[in-house]
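User: Could you check the structure of this?
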Amino acid sequence: MPEATRPTSITCARCGVQKKVGRSGPIPTYCSAVCRNALSNERARTDGRYEQRLARERQQAAAQRENSARPCPYCGSPMTNPRRVQCGAPECKRQSTNDRMREYQRQYREKHGHFQSRLYDRGRKKQYTITCIQCGREATVTKATSRFCSTECWYEAKRLATAQAHAQLVLWRRNRYPLRIQVIRVRRPLRRRWYSACCPMCETWFLTDNPRDQNCSPRCGRKASKDKERARKREAFVAPVSRMRIFERDRWTCQLCDKRVKRNAVVPDPLAPVLDHVLPLAQGGTHEPANVQLAHYLCNSLKSDGVWGDGEQLALIG
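Assistant: Sure, the predicted structure tokens are below.
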């Protein structure tokens, strides 16, 4: 009978990698122990042995916790954690902390002759009986000038007083002239005087305590300042310009390409709405409603400081 020849290399039964075989010893089936263990785990998960073993171990751990459970020394609830000194309820935590601090103070007094905190050595304060001005109940306090029985009553009285003092601040009406400021009339003087005004940039009504505020937000203020600064550098005439009024006047249509603009888009979106000067400031134009129009950001950028004339229009895609 001819002898079986020993192969020089094998192919791993799991990953298919070629591995050299030694001259002696059993012929391996896998390239490494990692592939052997991985294939064994895959088989265990496939036939359900892994889940059965995991469930059995969980049952054993639960049974062990139940057998080792002991009652809470304060409320009697079972505690499965052997390192717990109380069940974890708020009341049990408070009682456990108090007992621990009492024991610590007792040991400290035995060692030093007095408590660590001098509050334990002080006598009780004198107590007074008052009638709470908020709820009308009698209470015992330690200060003769106290007027409330608790902090809750003090906060409630403070809230009611503030609400009554500022009840007139929310009552304001639209002004007939948007660019003017209207003073809110109140029945009695307050610490502040509030005003209602309309932002010339976005046509939004807002409340302010500073009569010099002309814009509803810093963003609108920066836009208005930027437009005015550009005009002042060119020594051009400057007049109040409302972006929203110009956009509504031009019906949200670019005056250079006759196409709609995206209302909610912002620069640098090509279709964002911007103000364009019909006669550029570089050529002697003015910054006033008659010399501004709505345009796409891309159209305005391509126009630059030139003049768009002779009926030529710009073709935008989309």
